[in-house]
Amino acid sequence: MPDQSNALLEKLLQSKKYRDICPDTVRRVWAECEKKYKKPKDVDKAAREALHGITGAFMTPEESSQLGYDMQQWWCTKTDTGLERMLQRHASTRERLPLASMDALYGQIFGIANRPRSVLDLACGINPLYLGARGIETFGVDISGPSVAAVNRFGEVYGMPVSAACADLLCSGAIPPRRFDMALLFKLLPLLERQRAGAAVAVMDAVNAEWLVVSFPTRTLGGRNVGMAAHYADWMAAHLPLGRAIADRFETENELYFVLK
Ligand SMILES: C[S@@+](CC[C@H](N)C(=O)[O-])C[C@H]1O[C@@H](n2cnc3c(N)ncnc32)[C@H](O)[C@@H]1O
After folding, report:
1. Is the CB of 102 under 6 A from ligand 1?
2. What is the CATH number of domain 2-55?
3. Distance 4 CA to ligand 1 centre (A)
4. Which of 33, 80, 131, 233 fits as disulfide partner to 138, beta carbons 3.0 to 4.6 Å?
5. What ranges do the domains of the chain cover?
6. Which of 71, 30, 181, 198 is nearest to 118 (CA)?
7. Tens-digit pLDDT profile for the chain (261 aa)?
8. What kind of architecture, by CATH, is found in domain 61-260?
């Protein structure tokens, strides 16, 4: 039985769909499913279902390779149009465009919390590309290999002040202990809670930053507004980390933001 289980886990780690996801995540989800099911085949099925829910289709392989080309183009001209094209390649940054809206969003955050010198972007996707292009030193963490690779490429090849690590926030050692001026947790907490009850507060508690900026989606994937803002506002009020206070709360077209001091 353990041999069959190991073989299935190895196959899952090498599979086209999950080979670019942080291996710690695949192993963590597998171990969680092993606690619920006895037969290796049932564990495999449950693990695949759980991973599908976590990883989502934020950036397709085509978008990821297009992003490499966009980056090269942006480097030649450094225009906002080029930056916007890059940010289009990931579902989460795409939702915040046009770039003027993204500038306004950060203008509002930095109006309350001051422009940070260092940012920790948890479950970053490709959001650090925006911050780096605006000259803000950013360290990102994500389980998505292609997102992390894009951020590191922007830093290493194009000299922008960004870097990232492929790590799972539910595994130990993923959150850097050093102090940051600001930490971003954009559209992350509901995803973490779904993966492990209580994880959202644990992650907020573990972050070493003067300011936490947390966001929640306010529309379903189909674009409907079904009262998510009120639901997440209640959730935030009930789960405020010890020693933090809400300095600002505002809504954009698709997201609800909290700036926590
Ligand atoms: C909705 S996207 C948000 C991306 C980015 N924060 C933004 O708003 O532009 C959620 C991100 O969380 C990442 N993610 C999901 N579970 C994670 C975990 N356990 N640890 C680290 N990242 C995770 C996904 O890979 C994905 O990039």
Report:
1. no
2. 1.10.8.10
3. 31
4. 131
5. 2-55, 61-260
6. 181
7. 578 889 999 999 999 999 999 999 999 999 999 999 999 999 999 999 999 888 878 999 999 999 999 999 999 999 999 999 999 999 999 999 999 999 999 999 999 998 999 999 999 999 999 999 999 999 999 999 999 999 999 999 999 999 999 999 999 999 999 999 999 999 999 999 999 999 999 999 999 999 999 999 998 766 677 788 999 999 999 999 999 999 999 999 999 999 999
8. 3-Layer(aba) Sandwich (3.40)
